[in-house]
UniProtKB/TrEMBL annotation:
Protein known as: ABC transport system ATP-binding protein
Keyword line: ATP-binding, Nucleotide-binding, Transport
Domain ABC transporter: 4-230
Family matches, as InterPro entries: AAA+_ATPase, ABC_transporter-like_ATP-bd, MacB-like_ATP-bd, P-loop_NTPase
Recorded GO MF terms: ATP binding
Similarity comment: family membership: Belongs to the ABC transporter superfamily.
Organism whose genome encodes this protein: Blautia caecimuris
SUPFAM superfamilies: P-loop containing nucleoside triphosphate hydrolases (SSF52540)
Length: 230
């Protein structure tokens, strides 16, 4: 079953000669429960595509359907609710709130939505990610790898159907990258979520079930991988 369907998505910036075709007619389906890696040169449109799937940005043309919900015509408020309930974002720069503790950062999406905390899930996620002893620490007291694990926990805490990760290991050394990837993949498998991840790292892309290559705002190729050799 497909959890994301993208129909002929277009996003252009600017006009005339300077116009940039960030997305130039993308058609794509993403199967539920799978890990899809998105690769491509800098400026090829990867982040723009991820932002459209996550309802962070709206296309000029085309349609995005996530978990049976079309984002077309949604108002900003509806998109915000959609993002909080359906999507977990993980960014390269972690994007943690420095004035909140690790615990508060992880629970932040729930507090925005007025949702109650699933204490078992919180304990499970923080244990899987090795954060149970750091819950009262401030983000800047953790290493880069530790901060990214907090960002992973925050993305998972509301049990979103889909996790969108924009180069989540881009600022980590190889050991921390492997750790974060291992935790992320294990968590996604445990909670039956779908992971879409932008990466420049081909080793990481090989861990995915499927790799999509984007060039000049178009899908240039896609291949199933023989993942699972984690
Ligand atoms: N808000 C914007 N205004 C103008 N141009 C933009 C805007 N956002 C993106 N672009 C342009 O659209 C193109 C695609 O950008 P995008 O960030 O999606 O690429 P990317 O593949 O994610 O690149 P990178 O790997 O460097 O992050 C680029 O040429 C970029 O400069």
């Amino acid at each position: 079953m497909d959890i994301v369907t993208v129909h002929h998505l277009k996003k252009y910036y600017g006009k005339g000669e300077k116009q940039v075709r960030a997305l130039d007619g993308i058609d794509l389906s993403i199967e539920k429960g799978k890990f899809t890696a998105v690769i491509g040169a800098s400026g090829s449109g990867k982040t723009t595509l991820l932002n459209m799937i996550g309802g962070m940005d709206v296309p000029d043309e085309g349609e995005v359907i996530v978990d049976g919900i079309s984002l077309r015509g949604m108002k900003e408020k509806e998109l915000a609710v959609f993002r909080r309930r359906k999507v977990g974002f993980i960014h390269q720069n972690f994007n943690l709130v420095s004035a909140l503790t690790v615990r508060e950062n992880i629970l932040f999406p729930l507090s925005l939505d007025g949702a109650s905390q699933d204490k078992m899930l919180f304990r499970e996620i923080t244990e899987i990610l090795g954060l149970e002893d750091r819950l009262d620490a401030w983000p800047d007291q953790l290493s880069g790898g530790g901060q990214q694990r907090v960002a992973v926990a925050r993305a998972l805490i509301s049990r979103p159907a889909i996790i969108l990760a924009d180069e989540p290991t881009g600022n980590l050394d190889s050991k921390n990258s492997q750790n974060v990837m291992g935790f992320l993949k294990m968590s996604v498998e445990t909670y039956h979520q779908t992971l879409v991840m932008i990466t420049h790292n081909l080793e990481i892309a090989q861990m995915a079930d499927r790799v999509i290559r984007i060039e000049d705002g178009r899908i240039f190729g896609q291949e199933e991988t023989h993942a699972a050799q984690f």
